User: What shape does this take?
Amino acid sequence: MFKGIRKGYLIAILIVCFIPDAIRAQILAPQIVIGDVEFSYSISGLSTSDTNTLTVGDSVYLLLSDSTSLTIPLTLNSPTSIVLETPIISDSIKVNPIPLWWSFLPPLLSILLALIIREVITSLFLGIFLGAVIIQAYSHNLLSGIFIGFMSTIDTYLLGALNDTGHLSIIVFSLLIGAMVSVISKNGGMQGVVNRISKNANSPKSGQLATWFLGVAIFFDDYANTLIVGNTMRPITDRLKISREKLAYLVDSTAAPIAAIAFVTTWIGAELGYIQDGIEEIDGLNEGVYSTFIQSLAYSYYPILALLFMLMLILKNRDFGPMYRAEMAARKSTNIRHISEDNEELDEFKAEENISIKAYNAVIPIVVVIFGTLGGLIYTGWDPEITQNSSLSFGKKLSAIIGNADSYLALLWSSLAGLIVAMKLSVFQKILGLGKTINAALNGIKTMLPAIIILVLAWGLALVIEEMHTADLLTSVISDNVSPYAIPAITFLLAAIVAFSTGSSWGTMAILYPLMLPLSWSVSLEYGLEYGDNLSIFHNVVASVLAGAVLGDHCSPISDTTILSSMASSCNHIQHVKTQMPYALTVGFVSLLFGVLPASFGIPFFICLPLAAVVLYLIIQYFGKRVDTKQ
Assistant: This one.
């Protein structure tokens, strides 16, 4: 009897050991399974001649297949046993799906921490860590999840964020632009541009106009804009009895808006990276990331209206609220205060002493970057089928070419060319020695490192959000309760609140782009919108994240650019915030009511923008008071 039993065991062992891999029954589940989300499970070792049985929890399925393997979709919402039985052998696994609502915890933690501790880097890192712990805890156990989650935070998510040519391209481009900005500042090129613009400032109105034009001219970096314009124009505006509060407002409210919407800036790399993270998981979107950015500019109402609002205030010579009182005090020579600021950041963009100041040392490298980018886009996107299509207009051909282009390559080529040209101009004219030029470039790279760290952490959090299907949760919650036409307005307000609370427009974009872009697309599809209408709302949401972030940044007392504007203008920081906030909120309200909302319903840009501009003009006309210009 026992011999028979031993013989049976031996036969079973021999069968198991010598069954070819091709016919072994096996179930392969995804490494990460989220509840209420459909995942694909691979099954192999099926019999093609007999019936195979698959048991999923309490449900039994008969599998008839012409192949020994197949992939089946399953949606699970609780711990479930899956058993596969074939005529030869069976296999079973236990699947423990992560509840879908847990997927919102990592971004929620990042947002709440950013609101509470007001520090974006720590908030993003802890959001990634929490997501990694949740994933690993469900795969193993809580204690193992903490240790493995900590390790996977860096070896899976942060390294995964860097293991992407597009992300690396953005980092290198941002560093190269930062280096170029520093070099053209040290070689006196930026000072030359400043001198050209400010030489005709001989009245309060012309002084403010010069400051506005200078802020628009230095479009490629908000930090350089703030520090250069504030420090350079301060002696001129003091002489013309323009308040420090008004100078700080002009500096602050030109820096971020123009840097956010210009084509070639230190912002564009980050914006493209954030937008790319948001659109990677969207099925059916037929356009590239650079094309998405260009198309979204038609919905960037707040940055554009902020620039127009300042110009109207200057030309009308009117102000209201705390700014009016500050301006009147300055005209009476009671408000021009010299506040000494000893900060290394103020020296970062100062020209070298005892050098010849020439504007072309800045203009030439900037022109190289602009036209180099355009040339690179055309070169990488060139398609004879598009150019030879006589039914397309020139504008549509150019748009199609840019949409097909590799924007990362174009930005890399042009930024490197701009840096090399700036360095050659500095060295060959003997303005700076080679050592000082290299040091200036390295200092420019150093100024970009905090932004790069935020970028990498944001990409890491985006990977966590993608793996945990956070967008699916938001879609399921919002699709039945919110109209897609309201999503751009909600996005604008949410971005403004997060940026106000964190003081970081970049951090706000990092958190919201991966969430709101897939959400808006999914909700619009669920609502049954046509592709064109869906695309219009999508572009509006892209712009609303950016515009809301800039609005919140302008109102926030802890924003880096707000602090830098106060510092560069030698203005009391609280006074700057108090005088700027009413203006920023006014433009934000008008942008939302007459720009973002109507655009969601298909009202075109050429109607919304003039209408919003007229409303702002009427506000200035009826609520603003003329500032006494008597000296």
User: Anything to note?
Assistant: The first strand starts at residue 26 and ends at 28. The mean pLDDT is 81. The longest helix spans residues 434-467. The chain has 26 helices and nine strands.
